[in-house]
Every structure is written in structure tokens, then in C-alpha cells.
């Protein structure tokens, strides 16, 4: 094949229409991956990976038979015509190395290395590498005598010392970078995520799959979907907090597709215009957190494209929570055309949470659907949250299994049932479960029972929280002032709400407390107040 013919085929393979073949070629030649490893990296079947490899070989017109020979033929083509394409050394043919030509040499000394004569060799030192527990004859057969001069020994020791110092410096720098990004991650999550910091149960499989996507450089668009209360926000928060720093992101953004108000003085003005923000505001929020100045063009597409280009220049992590509340969420997802490589934001990544499935809007998106926790995890959660309830402590696991059946393993529902068991002393455990089983709108029924069981002061705090925006995290002082409760009543009511799983403390122990309620409870109270 002539050079220009090869380069034409190479450029054709890099086109957006051949994006999948291009990804396979890089994995096959640059990273020396097997068919199975390629399939796993691209989240495809092994047969699909094998078929793409065959298509690539046909595309370049390889003449050899057999996959190994075809790959070596491609290696030679790239070495001859496109040396900037760095082929993995392990897949060179046996007679090809980094400095040799592309054909076997008949000479016994193909690289013309000068062979020293006895007269030209200065006084030498012999170093023998001797293995233990070998007899002398085997040592003579297996061991090499390496002849080096004293000056060369000194040079080797000097180089080894430089390597050790370099590697140590690199490790220290990497650890420092990880510490810095971890601090930034913690700061962003504490101020924006509003996720409960309590122990999570039964999320290991979800977390492991998300970690795989987070670490895969070919995956950049991820969604976590599921019903309200299943724990989407909490799982993503834990994923980012525990693993985000190790992936190499330089910055992180957490935005929610709902309006947020934090100042007490805004509460009296009731400046709540709708429950969600539009696409322009979301993009502006992301740019602001990343300290990116968007162009002042009236055309939103210009701003959106500008932000896309910025996200390609460095590895940023963007989390968009409650995406389904964004009016133009389909427009946002469809805006990342999977067949246009210019829309690929790598090395940055976007993670979205939503109550609605999103994958049908974009085939590039990797989606995980959370369907609740399993039965053993449900029992663990019940015993953890109900350790102060005598009836739960005395119940056997088998007696608690019906709670899993009625809740579908959704943590929010489980916690509300635990609260109902703790506060309703007239009904037996089995009667409570039977009553819950026959409720059509389970969450509304459980919230109704829970709100009827708490004090007026506690309900006053919940009602005050609904004066702010849904998904807001309110600091201790602002919430206390706007609730008009004295210090003792306020503190007791806060503890009561946390104990009943109706209020979340969204900050760590070293930070000032901030409080939030679940969006489902927020909607229930707003609806109840308006009736």
C-alpha cells in the first residue's frame, strides 16, 4: 500500500461516522487490548469487538491470515507511514523493535554494535548474579557474567539515585494534588449536594458499576435514574466523595435543576418563580462554579458551544441533580449528538440523576437504574434506624421481611415505615404492615401518619423549610430565626425530626449544621397546605 493511500484510509477512519472503529483501533493497537477487554471498555458484546477488528483489517487491506498476523501487518503499516501513532511495543513482530527497520536483517549483528576485542577492554569487574539453592553446574548454565567498568558502576548508582528521587518527588506531588482536589470535592459537596451523610445500605453493586464508568476514559456521559427516595443523590455523592480525587479531575461542579434560596430576607418576598430553572441558567451556573466567563452573545448556542470546548480542555466533573425538573432536559441530552465527535466532552464527565430514564435520548449515555436495596440490606437498615424501638429490636428477620415487600426496598419508604412502627403503639407490627400494603399512595399515607405523630414545633420547622425552595439546604441560624422558636424548643424539634427521618443534616461533624427535607416530603407539605 502506498503512503498516500494509507493516510487517506487513516483519515477516513478518524471521521465521526467511524467513531466506534476508531475507538477499537486505539484499544487494539495503542493499548494492546484483547477482544474481550475491548468489549468491556466500550460496554459492547465480544462479538461486536471482534467484528469491528475484522472491519478495520479489511479497511486497511491487510494481506496476512490470522488475527495476530493481521495486527502485526497493521503495526508495520503504521510504523512505516504514521510513526506519530504510538503502537504498543508488546505487539511488535518478534523481529521489530523501537530502532530497527521493518524487515528481518540477514546479518547476525543487525544494529552494527561494535564488538570489543580483548585488547580494547580495560580492567573489568565481574558481577555474578547467583540464585540460591542451585547446584554449581546449573549456575554455570543459567547465570550471566556482566562485565562493566568501575566508572560504569558509579554511573549506574548515580542514575538509580536520580530515578528514586524522581519517583519519590512524583509520588509526593501526586499525593498533594489528590489532597487538594479532595478538599475541593468535600467543599463543593458540603455546600451543594444536600445529601444525607448517614450510612448507606445495599448500594455496593450500584457504587461499583458507577466507579467503573467513572474510571473508564471512554465513558463521559452517565445517568443514575430511579423513583423518588431510592437514594440516587446519596449514591452519587458517595461515589464522588470516595473516588473522585483518584480519577484525576482538576475541578468539580454540582448543580441542581431546581431553584434555591438561602437568605432569610428572601423568604418574606416569596420570590419563587416556578420550581425549576431553564437550560440557560443551568449552563450559567456550571460556568460560574468553574470560573469560566461565557461570551456575551444573545445566542445561547454560542454560549453552550463555548462551555463544551472549555470542558474538553481539562478533566472536569459535572454533576446535575434532579435533571427531570429541568424543562428542556431532553434538549440538553439530545444536544450531545453521539455521532458527532465534537460533542464528546472527554476528558471531562457529566453525571446526572433523574426520576425519568434518559438513555433513549442519547445512545452515548451509560445509565444505571436504581430499583431499591435487597432484602438483607433492608433488614439491616430497619435495625439500624429502629434500634431504639423495642418492637423492632425483638422482631425476627422473618417478621421484618414484609417491610421489604411493601417498600420495594426503597430506603425512604423503609424509614417512614420504621417511624410509623415507632410512633403507632395501638397497632401490632403485622397490622401496620397490612395497613400499609393496602394503601395506593404509600408515600403520602406514610407522610400523613408521620406528620400527625410529631409535635407542633417540629411541624413548624418543616413548614418553614417549604418557604424556601425545594432541595435547599438551610443553615442552623437561618432556620432558627425564620421558625420563631426559642433555642430549647428549636433544638428539641430538630432532634425529633431527625429521629423520625423527616429531616436531613447535610453537613459533616466539623461544619456548621445545614438542614434539608426530601423533595417528596416538600411537595406533600406544600400540597397539604394549599388544600
Describe the protein's topology.
Elements: H1 3-13, H2 19-30, H3 35-42, H4 46-60, H5 67-81, E1 125-128, H6 136-142, E2 145-148, H7 150-192, H8 204-215, E3 221-225, H9 232-247, E4 251-256, H10 264-269, H11 279-289, H12 300-312, E5 316-321, H13 329-334, E6 349-354, E7 366-369, H14 375-385, H15 390-394, H16 397-407, H17 411-423, H18 429-437, H19 442-453, H20 456-465, E8 474-475, H21 476-483, H22 487-499, E9 504-505, E10 514-516, H23 519-530
Parallel strand pairs: 3-6, 3-7, 4-5, 5-6
Antiparallel strand pairs: 1-2, 8-10, 9-10
Report on this model:
With 531 residues, the protein is α/β, with parallel strands linked by helices. The protein folds into three domains: 3-91, Arc Repressor Mutant, subunit A (Orthogonal Bundle); 189-369, Rossmann fold (3-Layer(aba) Sandwich); 375-530, Winged helix-like DNA-binding domain superfamily/Winged helix DNA-binding domain (Arc Repressor Mutant, subunit A), CATH 1.10.10. The protein has helices at residues 3-13, 19-30, 35-42, 46-60, 67-81, 136-142, 150-192, 204-215, 232-247, 264-269, 279-289, 300-312, 329-334, 375-385, 390-394, 397-407, 411-423, 429-437, 442-453, 456-465, 476-483, 487-499, 519-530; strands at residues 125-128, 145-148, 221-225, 251-256, 316-321, 349-354, 366-369, 474-475, 504-505, 514-516. The strands form three sheets. A five-stranded parallel sheet has the order 4-5-6-3-7, sandwiched between helices. The protein has a three-stranded antiparallel sheet with strand order 8-10-9. Strand 9 and strand 10 form a beta hairpin. The longest helix is centred in the first third of the chain and has 43 residues, at 150-192. The model is unreliable at 94-111, 120-134, 139-146 and 259-275 (pLDDT under 50).
